[in-house]
Design a protein that fits this description.
It is a single chain. This protein has about 170 residues and is of the alpha+beta class. About 15% of the residues lie in helices and about 60% in strands. It has one helix at about 5-35, and strands at about 40-55, 60-65, 65-70, 70-80, 85-95, 105-115, 115-125, 135-145, 150-160, 165-174. The protein has an eight-stranded antiparallel barrel. A hairpin with a 2-residue loop joins strand 6 and strand 7 (about 115-125). The chain is elongated and about 90 Å long.
Length: about 170
């Protein structure tokens, strides 16, 4: 029985050399095709909104002492880190126990400033009924115009009796 290692090793070395040379030639081309990662900037975010009008809800129903509503819309004056404009909040679903005054909600929102928009979602809880407070969290993930490439997230508290809302959090600019 004869074993030929010399020829096999020589062939394997040639293959390694070809693969290595190919990688060295292609690596600069691959690196040019990969976009550079832009720096991410985090800034504090704040806003004050004031409800100016409401419409809806499109649907309301009761089950025992639980009220549920869909598509309640708030139009608000907006003043905050993004500038001065308006904000529309659409409560997709709101649930409120009319006996305890406790409830929950999910909503979408859009801020309009000049020709730019910024939108996202929010969810939270209601304490003290419709004359109490709403607290929760928000996430903003879609901006157009001046707000393209931005995100924002944080918390808010709304005085349901006066319609005043204060927001705080962080803006992320890509």
């Amino acid at each position: 029985m004869q074993v030929q290692l010399g020829g096999d090793i020589l062939e394997m070395n040639k293959k390694i050399a070809i693969v290595t040379t190919t990688l060295l030639v292609l690596l600069p081309l691959v690196l040019m095709a990969v976009p550079t990662v832009a720096a991410m900037i985090k800034e504090p975010y704040w806003a004050h909104a004031q409800i100016t009008s409401t419409s809806g809800p499109n649907k309301v129903w009761f089950a025992n002492s639980i009220m549920q509503a869909e598509d309640l819309v708030w139009e608000c004056a907006y003043n905050g880190s993004l500038g001065i404009g308006t904000m529309e909040v659409v409560f997709g679903h709101l649930t409120l126990n009319t006996v305890t005054g406790q409830g929950t909600f999910i909503a979408t929102w859009t801020i309009f400033i000049d020709d730019s928009t910024f939108s996202g979602s929010a969810n939270g809880k209601i304490t003290g009924g419709l004359g109490g407070t709403a607290t929760g969290v928000f996430r903003g993930t879609h901006g157009t115009g001046e707000f393209e490439g931005m995100q924002k997230m944080g918390g808010f508290v709304t005085n349901l009796a006066t319609g005043a809302e204060d927001e705080w959090g962080v803006m992320i600019i890509h």
